[in-house]
Design goal:
Helix content is 34%, strand content 18%. The chain is of the alpha+beta class. The protein is globular, with a radius of gyration of 28 Å. The longest helix is centred in the first third of the chain and has 17 residues. The two termini are 41 Å apart. α1 crosses α2, α2 runs antiparallel to α3 and α4 runs antiparallel to α10. The mean pLDDT is 87. It has 24 helices and 22 strands. A 5-stranded mixed β-sheet has the order 2-11-10-3-9. A 5-stranded antiparallel β-sheet has the order 14-13-12-16-17. A 4-stranded antiparallel β-sheet has the order 5-4-7-8.
Length: 705
């Protein structure tokens, strides 16, 4: 699905997004990065970021879409659960959707979860809501279907609706009953959810054996278990001694095809039933908690003794016990509202700060990176840690040779908490941030600059080519010109061969030379040529965005492209020309003006034009033409609640075609609020304003039809 050279690019993009707050300009990039990490985690069982890091990126996307609902797309990661489907195993449907879990990290989050459950179930404050608390095993999810008391099928989680069938591998695992007497309880057909895990002891044994055979060591128990479920040799699955813990009876059907879940009307009794039928479960006697405060006490106690568990656990799962309340809570497209994962805090570790290296990005930002004595934290070996910027180093008084505390809080990327000053012996050396570009290897030194309000120092005039390389890598990336097959590794390879030195060289390659390179051949070279020819026809907005102009994101590029006939018009634009356009500020204006004032940039763009790259406004760049008599011409509009006849995105597009401008929040500038089911605070605020026209979905459709 992803080419080898793309992985580093997505990893770097993830780190950039995690280091600083995202803006609306980042929304498509954020979606693309999340899709990549879903694939890495669920498909190839080889995540490159922690669960917490993914959660951070996911929540950033949720917040951006919440603030800008007009930008929600049906294929956004927030609109579905994560996939783990490949073509290696046949795809089979789950009997009920296999969703993800929302996350919590402290007692306050759990109290909010309890509050939400009470609102959804209309339960009074004095009503006791019981919960079940289970260890959150860190493994691979599995769905088991039984019919007439026999194991019929096993599947991975997949995309939540379909999973990969792995029945032969499941049948060989002793912890999965091949026969279970569901019929004694009036159940003809059932689906059981479970987690496949490998004990810590067995994992260490497996790696000792692999080391003795000169095999690559397994990364961690989670990946080993998830990967073991999907080996093509069931005996390999058995050799890993995978154990499956059942954690949910998700579906039960009686002889007449009716719902048999009501026969076991609470989660605690369901787990007791599964245990009695021969399934491996967490210790059933410890599951129930009388209220949310008992839940908080239980997870706190578990967190304190997590090392005592024989399996890797990264938290606990809290579930509403009564099935009738679960049904009242319902689910989003992503997670059930009646369950939440409580994530344990990461462990801390001490290590030694050995050195600091510096990296340069496409706009010249210099990022210091700490090289530390490798240390193992929560299943990951850490040897490099971003120091972000000069201020970070100063605020922690970090010195080479320091003993430092590092942390992966909530499974986030490691960071330095502090240096241990009491352990200093006088040999430590202060870290002096460079005043000139540390990446530049030329005789001429380039002084670093830092703009007002920014934390990063930047190299303003690259002469060594390091920034040019990063700009080319970005230019060909999926986020920019989207040249398939031309990822980071190939850019670096061609750059080192002297074939490309700037962006224009991408469009002037010698494909006969390329096909002679090891790993290419004629077919690959032709495929690359086809991708490059396709990119030449990209809209002007994509070209502008691909140039790596500081602060010029995708949205701003689109806005500017809609205002010009061709790219060279920007040579003559003044700051006033830019800032007269809504959403274009003086910082973007000055950066674009600076770029187009440089003769080398203009020469490069002219070379690209000569080689067939589109530099003119295309149909995709032009704003839609709205008739003055369009039904909603000149109006502002906002949608809230659940729409029944169309998606939110479809509604917004329909509103735009009818002349309206979509807003993201209720304000005095809003003309129309279209209200779907379960409308919330936006409806109340609009009503209180008194100036907003309130329409139902049906009334909106009648107006625009």
């Amino acid at each position: 699905m992803y080419q080898a050279q793309e992985h580093a690019s997505y990893y770097d993009l993830s780190k950039e997004l995690l280091k600083s707050p995202t803006s609306v300009d980042d929304i498509e990039l954020l979606r693309d990065v999340l899709r990549y990490h879903e694939w890495k985690y669920y498909v190839v069982n080889d995540p490159v970021i922690s669960d917490y890091e993914y959660d951070v990126l996911y929540k950033q996307l949720v917040e951006l879409e919440r603030a800008h609902p007009e930008l929600i797309s049906p294929d956004s990661p927030t609109q579905r659960v994560s996939p783990d489907l490949t073509s290696e195993f046949p795809s089979v449907p789950h009997l009920t959707p296999m969703l993800s879990l929302d996350n919590s990290y402290n007692a306050e989050d759990l109290l909010k979860f309890d509050e939400q459950v009470r609102k959804l179930t209309q339960s009074s404050a004095d009503r006791k809501i019981t919960y079940c608390v289970e260890p959150k095993f860190d493994g691979g999810s599995i769905a088991l279907v039984y019919e007439d008391d026999r194991l019929l099928r096993a599947a991975t989680r997949g995309n939540g609706f379909f999973g990969e069938e792995i029945t032969p591998n499941a049948r060989i695992l002793p912890s999965i009953p091949l026969r279970a007497s569901f019929s004694k309880h009036g159940i003809k057909r059932a689906e059981i959810r479970g987690e496949a895990v490998i004990s810590k002891e067995k994992f260490e044994q497996l790696n000792r054996e692999r080391a003795s055979q000169d095999l690559t060591l397994l990364a961690n128990p989670r990946n080993s278990a998830a990967g073991g479920l999907r080996t093509k040799d069931p005996q390999e699955t058995r050799n890993r001694e995978i154990e499956v813990f059942a954690f949910h009876l998700s579906y039960a059907e009686d002889e007449q095809g009716g719902d048999a879940l009501q026969k076991v009307d609470n989660h605690f009794d369901q787990m007791q039933l599964l245990y009695n039928l021969g399934f491996k479960t967490a210790n059933v006697s410890t599951l129930k908690a009388k209220d949310i405060h008992a839940v908080i006490d239980k997870v706190s106690a578990w967190e304190g003794k997590r090392d005592d568990f024989p399996y890797e656990i990264d938290g606990a799962v809290v579930k509403v016990n009564e099935v009738v309340l679960q049904e009242l809570c319902g689910s989003t497209q992503h997670h059930p509202r009646w369950a939440v994962a409580y994530k344990f805090k990461a462990k801390q570790a001490t290590t030694t700060l050995l050195d600091v290296e510096y990296q340069v990005g496409k706009i010249g930002s210099i990022t210091p990176v700490a090289k530390v004595e490798p240390v193992h934290i929560a299943g990951v070996t850490v040897s490099s840690i971003s120091l972000h910027n000069e201020e970070f180093i100063r605020s922690r008084d970090l010195r080479l040779g320091d003993k430092i505390i590092i942390e992966r809080a909530g499974d986030v990327i490691p960071y330095i908490v502090k240096s241990l000053e009491d352990l200093r012996d006088g040999t430590e050396v202060p870290i002096i941030f460079p005043t000139h570009c540390p990446v530049n290897d030329r005789a001429e030194k380039i002084a670093l600059v830092r703009e007002e309000g920014e934390a990063a120092w930047r190299c303003p005039d690259c002469i060594c080519g390091a920034q040019d390389l990063q700009k080319i890598i970005f230019h060909v990336s999926k986020e920019a010109m989207d040249i398939d097959g031309f990822g980071k590794a190939n850019v670096e390879r061609f750059y080192n061969l002297g074939w490309i030195k700037n962006i224009s060289d991408v469009y002037d390659l010698d494909y006969e030379k390329i096909e002679k390179l090891e790993g290419f051949g004629k077919r690959s070279a032709e495929k690359l040529k086809k991708s490059i020819e396709k990119a030449k026809r990209n809209p002007l907005s994509k070209l502008l965005h691909s140039l790596s102009i500081h602060h010029l994101g995708k949205k701003a590029s689109g806005i500017i492209a809609s205002e010009i006939g061709d790219i060279f018009e920007l040579q003559n634009w003044t700051e006033d020309d830019f800032i007269r356009i809504r959403d274009i500020g003086p910082v973007v204006a000055r950066n674009v003006m600076r770029y187009f004032s440089r003769h080398d940039n203009i020469d490069m763009l002219k070379q690209m034009e000569a080689m067939g790259v589109n530099i003119r406004q295309s149909e995709d760049d032009r704003p839609p033409e709205i008739s003055p008599d369009a039904p909603l011409a000149g109006k502002t509009i906002l949608f809230t609640g659940s729409l029944q006849k169309m998606t939110r995105l479809e509604a917004k597009k329909l509103a735009e075609k009818s002349g309206a401008k979509n807003l993201s929040a209720v304000s005095s500038n809003l003309d129309i609020l279209v209200v779907g089911e379960n409308a919330g605070s936006k409806l109340k605020k609009a009503t209180d304003l008194g100036s907003v026209q309130i329409l139902s979905e049906e009334e909106f459709l009648n107006i625009v039809s």
